[in-house]
Amino acid sequence: MNMRTRVGIIGAGPAGLMLSLLLSREGIDSIILERRDREEIEATIRAGVLEQGTVDLMTEMGLDERMKREGLVHHGIELRFDGEGHRIHLSELTNGRAFTVYPQHEVLKDLIAARLNEGGQILFNVKDVQLADISSSQPRIHFSREHEQSELQCDFIAGCDGFHGVSRPSLPEAEQHVFTRTYPFGWLGILMQAPPSADELIYAYSERGFALISTRSPDLQRMYIQCDPDDDIANWSDEMILEELQARLATTNNWQLRVGPITQKSILAMRSFVIEPMQYGRLFLAGDAAHIVPPTGAKGLNLAVADVRHLAHALKMSYTQNRAELLEAYSTTCLRRVWRAEHFSWWMTSMLHRFPDDDTFYPRLQRAQLEYTVRSRAAATSLAENYVGLPFTW
Ligand code: FAD
Ligand code: DHB
Predict the structure, then answer these.
(1) pLDDT digits (tens, 9 = 90+) for 52-93
(2) Cα–Cα 20 to 30 A to 164, which of 52, 172, 173, 364?
(3) Angle in degrees, CA 372, 374, 375, rounded to 5
(4) Ligand 2 test: best mutation among 74, 101, 105, 212, most atoms within 8 Å of CB?
(5) What pTM was estimated for this model as a whole?
(6) Residue 5 to residue 23: CA distance in whole angstroms
């Protein structure tokens, strides 16, 4: 079967879905090809923090109905170390900006429903996706679906297929300039049916390693602890996880974790990764296909949204005004924000985790940095403006 669209989008994650919605608002048609089925996408637990700019965009696009109802707006976070909590008043430090806790899979449910409701095409369960002629003006995507071979002809391809997708490897090897770092630790993440243990997110530094208290709803909580990236989740009983959380978050005034059944647990590795440039010929990479950040700064999803905002605008200018310069500048424009987020995520990660190969010098630097961050308004402001998200036009 042969099909044609203006923008062929690979991947129905935050990047691909938001791109197709932004394009449709400009009257530009697109088709999304997605490897997984809808149920799996809508059930995969990932990020939870939406920057102010991501929330504003969803609001402008009329995608905010459920987010406004179910999302939790936060005006501060806590940094906890040496048994004491210190509030960073994000809103006060950033002219009233805030962030919203609204899980990624809920965002995806909203975006998928919105796109399908307006008659958009999302082809789930596609297999064997391959890109062809990306340096020509008529690139194509080959794929199979229900054992039928198909071809999608397009003007442009948006590679929104995440870190393990096919788009990035389709770039000629000589064009792939990769910058990467892996960390000697991972995160063990859980979902727990319990009331919140705190009003705000807590980022805790302790001698036993990092811990993070986040939330999903009044009766479902999300928490993470630093662990060995090669560890097997089967080695962690629920009791061990709860004990570790309580120990890492302990305060001098006897803070208590509120506990309940753990309904989900998994371990994720942590890396920083950027490919430059984010474009080759008619192929434009966006989101995790082009860059990965360690999750400590909660930037991954938000960066994906920022990329496609630029891409949608550049495509609009190209189609409606025959101006190609924004498309030509796409990679440079995105990479400015990408590297800012890479730095912030690396910085938060480095400040808050125990590094297994240095338990003397580095911990003292970390404590000095934590103290500076909570005691200096200038340092706290730097954390705050990065955390709530820099302006879209950064
Ligand atoms: P993705 O969400 O990865 O979407 C890519 C889509 O492309 C997927 O639906 C995939 O099925 C599809 N696809 C892949 N290959 C193909 C193919 N060959 N053909 C067709 N379709 C394909 N960020 C945070 O900020 N905080 C967190 O706590 C956090 N936790 C995370 C936990 C995990 C396990 C992972 C993997 C990521 C986490 N992230 C987190 C990062 C955040 O979720 C991502 O940055 C975000 O999902 C990026 O969106 P994306 O659309 O670029 O890619
Ligand atoms: C969550 C994830 C993060 O990476 C983070 O920094 C804060 C919160 C979360 O999943 O809720």
Answers:
(1) 999 999 999 999 999 999 999 999 999 999 999 999 999 999
(2) 52
(3) 65
(4) 212
(5) 0.97
(6) 12
